[in-house]
Amino acid sequence: MQVRSVSWTPAQGWTPSLPAELDSESTLVVAFATPNLARDAGPLADLPVAFPRSRVVGCSTAGEIFDEALCDDTVTVGVARFARSRVETTTARVSSSADSFTAGHDVAASLAASDLRAVFVLSDGLLVNGSELISGATSVLPSGVVVTGGLAGDGERFARTWVLAGGEPTEGAVAGVGLYGDAVHVSTGSYGGWDMFGPERRITRAERNVLYELDDRPALSLYKEYLGDRARALPASAMRFPLAVRAGRHTERRTVRTILAVDECRQSMTFAGDLPVGWLAQLMQANQDRLVDGAMQAAARITPPPISGPQLAIAISCVGRRLVLGERTEEEIEATREALPASAQLVGFYSYGEIAPHGAGHTDLHNQTMTITTIGER
């Protein structure tokens, strides 16, 4: 297996140059790019030229990760040419969140095969309900298939996200990558680092990923009581105060949910994933040290691969973490890089949601985590 990582900036172009010599039908190219390139896709158009036979996927971001650096207005690319593994890609389209389950099902069904070992998913970050997307995918896939990925970002604007579909930046798209054969090894680690505060409240009215009431009170007005002056900056300010949800007091396993939009007329909040009625919800907040430590914990949770060669490492962190960390954001990237093997090439992006298993359990949509996927060959 051969792995390279490159980046593009308006001032310097591609540094180093795109490794076109790695192009093959067994090559995966992942690209994470500033959202503005949907209107001027110059560097994105270079990818199918340099890699005409390769499988190319990518998405818009809320910041790009390249090695130890946080970047904006750039393109970060990871290239992996497999020696003994097969790679395939597929796409699906959604026009609204109601299409999410079907999109996940169709992507997984298109990739399904007896030797499928892992699926990496990149999805539109605003039109897709991430929970339903993953439910659709896992309804098709065997439990042993690793599913990871993330939801595209649009900085702090929350206006438009895109995924590379057919080589073009496309809204409402979902891209899936299938990795096949016994030689490929995919491992993942995910961790948050947020603290809960305030009372735990029951979700008394919700429809999939739209929350209307907590403890029979309008959810948005209740949420604003905690935000105070920050409520004027919704929904972006909500990134600093996500919700932790769990099925009940019988379980300690919680999933974090981030707000994508608010509706003042209906006093509701739209989240990146589902909030089932009857579940418990509690506000969260973070300090910077805990988030940096969380990134290191995510890398530490990765199962050591039975390989010593090169690996492609993809780090997907939530835009909410970036908002909280501010100038210290690169510290969580540095902590991630430090915990990874020296042979790993690190690329990634800041997202509107992360896709990863709960430890060794089922895959779900996460928010406000650092999630890392490593790909290598035995």
Report on the architecture of this protein.
With 378 residues, the chain is an alpha+beta fold. The protein has two domains: 2-191 and 289-377, no CATH class; 195-285, no CATH class. It has seven helices and 27 strands. It has helices at residues 42-50, 100-111, 130-138, 219-227, 288-300, 319-325, 329-339, and strands spanning 2-9, 13-15, 27-33, 55-60, 64-66, 69-71, 75-81, 86-93, 116-123, 146-151, 163-165, 168-170, 173-180, 184-191, 195-207, 210-214, 217-218, 243-246, 255-257, 259-263, 268-271, 280-285, 311-318, 344-351, 353-357, 363-366, 370-377. The protein is globular and about 60 Å long.
Q: What is the compact description of this entry?
A:
This protein has helices spanning 42-50, 100-111, 130-138, 219-227, 288-300, 319-325, 329-339; strands at 2-9, 13-15, 27-33, 55-60, 64-66, 69-71, 75-81, 86-93, 116-123, 146-151, 163-165, 168-170, 173-180, 184-191, 195-207, 210-214, 217-218, 243-246, 255-257, 259-263, 268-271, 280-285, 311-318, 344-351, 353-357, 363-366, 370-377. The protein is of the alpha+beta class and 378 residues long.
Net shape: globular
- Structural class given helices, strands, pairing? alpha+beta
Helix proportion: 10-25%
The helix count comes to: 7
**How many strands appear in the DSSP assignment?**
27
Radius of gyration: 19 Å
Largest sheet, if any? Answer: 8 strands, antiparallel
The residue-averaged pLDDT reads: 92
Total discrete domains: 2
C-alpha end-to-end distance: 9 Å
Beta content comes to: 35-45%
Could you name the ranges where pLDDT drops below 50 across 5 or more consecutive residues? none
